[in-house]
Amino acid sequence: MSNRIPSALAWTGAGLTLLIAALVPFLLINTFSRAVAHAGLRVDENYTGGVVVRTIAHGNYKTLVYQPVHPHFFQRNQPFVQIAFEPISALPAEVQEKVDLDGDGQPDVLVHFLRPDTAQNAVQGNISALNSRYQSVENANEKSFSKMILRIGNRIVLRVPMNP
Amino acid sequence: MAEEKLTPHTATPFRTVGRSALLTLPMLLWSLLIFTPVLRQHDTAHSLGTLLVILFTNFLFFKMMRTGKTYRWRRYFFVAVGLLFPVGFISSLLALRGSMSIPIERMVSGDTPFCFMVTPMLLIPAALTRTLIFPGAILPTESNPHSIAAMIGLWFAMTLVMGKAWCSYGCFFGGIEEGFASLCKRPHIRKIDSRFRLVPWAVLLLVVLLSAALFEPFYCSWLCPFKAVTEFSAVHSVETAIQTGIFILLFAALVVILPLLTKKRTQCAFFCPFGAFQSLFNKINLFEIRVDRERCVECSACLTACPTMAITPESLREGKTELNCMKCGACVDVCRKGAAVWHLKGTRIGMKPERVRLFFLFGAWALSTMFGGYILSNAIATLIHFLPLR
Amino acid sequence: MLAATSLRILAPMGEALLLGLTTGPVCLASCGPVVVPWMLARPQQMRTQIRDLLCFLAARLAGYMLFAFGAWWMGTEITSLFAPRAWTIGGIQILLALSLLFFSVGWPRLHCHAKKTNAQLVQIDERKKHSGAISLGFLTGINFCPPFLVASVRAAQLEQLPAALLFFLCFFVGTVVWFAPYLFLGFIKRSQACVQVARIAAILLACWYGIVGASTLIVRIFHG
Lengths: 164, 390, 224
Known about the structure:
The structure holds three protein chains of three kinds. Chain A is an alpha+beta fold. Chain A has two domains: 1-41; 45-161, no CATH class. Chain A has two helices and nine strands, in the order H-E-H-E-E-E-E-E-E-E-E. In chain A, the strands form two sheets. A five-stranded antiparallel beta sheet of chain A has the order 2-3-4-9-8, with no helix packed on it. Chain A has a three-stranded antiparallel beta sheet with strand order 5-6-7, with no helix packed on it. In chain A, strand 2 (52-58) and strand 3 (61-66) form a beta hairpin. The longest helix of chain A is centred in the N-terminal third of the chain and has 34 residues, at 4-37. Chain A is elongated. Chain B is mostly helical. Chain B is built from 17 helices and five strands. Chain B has helices spanning 17-41, 44-67, 71-97, 104-108, 119-129, 148-162, 166-169, 172-181, 199-214, 218-223, 238-262, 266-270, 273-279, 301-305, 313-318, 330-334, 353-386, and strands at residues 101-102, 131-132, 232-233, 287-291, 340-344. By secondary structure, chain C is mainly alpha-helical. The chains are: A alpha+beta, B mainly alpha, C mainly alpha. Chains in contact: A-B, A-C, B-C. The interface between A and B is large, with 51 and 55 residues. Strand 1 of chain A pairs parallel with strand 2 (131-132) of chain B.
């Protein structure tokens, strides 16, 4: 008798396992995915570039200025500020714009780039720092998470490194 | 041959064709249910690939029922998935961007498909800062259906059912080295110290701590040997050159050469930190393999057969397998005395082992068909597209 | 007058304590890879573990104080103190690798074909008596972790040396609070398997620190 209860529970568990297996593709994957998605987690800003704090409208296109991203813990990347120009189709052939990154009303960097003709062409451009808090980016081909001038999807994304 | 009435301590019997087909029928219906949307929507190549997968997986399951053996038929499917996964994956990379190296644009845009091996490394940074240290998207997008939430959801659901059996029914990386391990007839290196099984735990401890400190997926950056068959960062510095050298060396040694020489899954047994993490789920999973000490004659056939050295002389004396048992069934199939048996926790050892095996297999095979079958059909469709049929 | 003087002295100390408390998780995470394998690898009693951890923290404090003195003496930002910063960082990482290797595992002898009486895969050198707390603590203390650099910049702005040292002491106390969880490592049942896992992890970590330190020095040598 003492062996029957654990045994019964074990076989019930085995049956439930089969039921769970049957529910996996129809219910459980979505349930667990939604649970992860609603857990209040976010992808590291070092990858995403952070959140937009200011949008500057220029008629057909806009300039997005992001919040500064600082390294977590022992992350080996420099702090940076991301700027994006979108949509690419609405950009003039050459963009030269002074951008205020810290919201104090004073321009902090001068952004200059040529709109790429095709999706495969690299973006030619540079970023000149007008403020000692930021670093210039001269070589458009140099890419790191804290320093880039790239086409990503329908946007031109630039990251301006900050002095630590 | 009629099925014998099962009593404790009975060796797994053969089944008749009829009974085997009857047991295979639910699996056939399951695979039709899972793959019907694919059959309806996709092109001819995908439909053909899917049909082949349905036939293949159900044939293997039929053989499992017919012969009463598990390991050999599981291995055919598992190795097929392991070898064909890179075909589909690499072809899609080459078609999309002409290279296996990951451009930084892909990481910034969140288009990196999530790999389940990152899971243990996410935990501490997520707990401390609510941040996921992986360059992917949390929710699926058109360009990245393998989002973080979707893949974690899939992995967790499958792990609930299988436990560590994920490593022998789900993980496509393991299929690659199992393929190499099965090439030679006899091992050339026979004596391996079983205490090297502790290394995956050490690697797990290391990657979890360093990922938290450096705030990056350390295993992916520095150690993962399977970058050789998926994607990797381009070499642009001394550090990335060292990282590239390390993963090539590890792939060659642990995935190709040592499995060939030892006929063991050396990467899984002696290195993989995700396997160590997955072993923890064996604690809560109901299915396990046990050894009936009354029937065991200590011939050590199970020790030799186990691909990950999950049975040691010490564990054999206690009548159980180690925590890293993948439930592949190799030891059960090779045991001539019927001592190594499938067991349900909470029941007596040797009680209805075939029924336990069936309960386990229906769940594990159903999910591996869903997961691995999808990979196989994609790869077959890719190969068909390459054929000069037109 | 007295209140103003007190405030002038206490305000930076409060600031340092708060800085240490808020950046504590960074210290927990950054020292974790060194502390956890090192403590787990040594099968000792709880009292010895606590003593070792306190020695580690004291040596870490000594590293901090040395840095505070340097920052105050130079009177400038610590980031520009070391023009040959790569040499320093690379050197520290290699020393840390060697220390971790020596004090966690001794000079390991891997037993591939072990004798039946030998229970351990990685044997510790029994002749060695020192726990390594001082070396490891000091080396982690002079590591260039970001909150440490922020604290050093602030300390460098203080006019008097005792104020700078006191600032770092308060910063240190703030971070030490976060080391309390490591005391619970002593409660983990120390099976042979656990000890072996920790020692293997220490070897792998030492290899990584060695590789990173060496690559930092290589870049410095060839690229300037």
